[in-house]
Write a structure and sequence with these properties.
The complex is a heterodimer of chains A (119) and B (107). By secondary structure, chain A is an all-beta fold. In chain A, 0% of the residues lie in helices and 51% in strands. Chain A has no helices and 11 strands. By secondary structure, chain B is mainly β. The chains are: A mainly beta (119), B mainly beta (107).
Chain lengths: 119, 107
């Protein structure tokens, strides 16, 4: 069974750093890109970027380029989303997701990681 | 970036109703369109890919159509478990972009 399991909820202060994770199982991790999607409270879905676990190549949305870093450790089948200096506006639910293999439709999703940034 | 515009933003409907949601792309995306259902507190669920292909396990009352710039998601005979928010997403080019969502509410 394909699963993406994300790290738990985080509460951080502005200016702090954070890395959240997404562990894949039940499939060959290096064969599918992992995307990250943001959902701010009460709002819609925003694609942030993706990473190819086989070679760590990344694509970022221009809206998120430079604000977050996507990385991967293929030895433990885990992708990461990282901030070096959080802002209150980073408060959101973050999902990792995997494409279906024939297109960039996102077939499998993690359960989400809630990040709250507040002083 | 390709902009995706969904309408309506919300719709009130009754069990058994037929519901149609539209999605328009700011430029042609061939058939590279997906539809998702999201319930409160849950991750989105893929319903339709490639504009009209039903994802495995999704009930046949869901259907998708369209190509180019104009797309439709239709739910025939709305069921209680279908009350949710629906999003379209273009998979033609990066960055991937989503529509603003359509909330299907109980009338």
């Amino acid at each position: 069974e394909v699963q993406l399991v994300q790290s738990g909820a985080e509460v951080k202060k502005p200016g702090e750093s954070l890395r959240i994770s997404c562990k894949g199982s039940g499939y060959k991790f290096t064969s599918y890109w992992i995307s990250w999607v943001r959902q701010m409270p009460g709002k819609g879905l925003e694609w942030m970027g993706r990473i190819d676990p086989s070679d760590s190549y990344t694509n970022y949305s221009p809206s998120f380029q430079g604000h977050v870093t996507i990385s991967v450790d293929k030895s433990i089948s885990t992708a990461y989303l990282q901030w070096s200096s959080l802002k209150a506006s980073d408060t959101a639910m973050y999902y990792c997701a995997r494409p279906d293999g024939t297109s960039d439709s996102l077939d499998y999703w993690g359960q989400g990681s809630l990040v709250t940034v507040s002083s | 970036d390709i902009q995706m515009t969904q309408s309506p933003s919300s719709v009130s409907a009754s069990v058994g109703d037929r519901v149609t949601i539209t999605c328009r792309a700011s430029q042609g995306i061939s058939s590279w369109l997906a539809w998702y259902q999201q319930k409160p507190g849950k991750a989105p669920k893929l319903l339709i890919y490639a504009a009209s292909s039903l994802q495995s396990g999704v009930p046949s009352r869901f259907s998708g159509s369209g190509s180019g710039t104009d797309f439709t998601l239709t739910i025939t005979s709305l069921q209680p478990e279908d009350f949710a928010t629906y999003y379209c997403q273009q998979a033609n080019s990066f960055p991937l972009t989503f529509g603003g969502g359509t909330k299907v509410e109980i009338k």
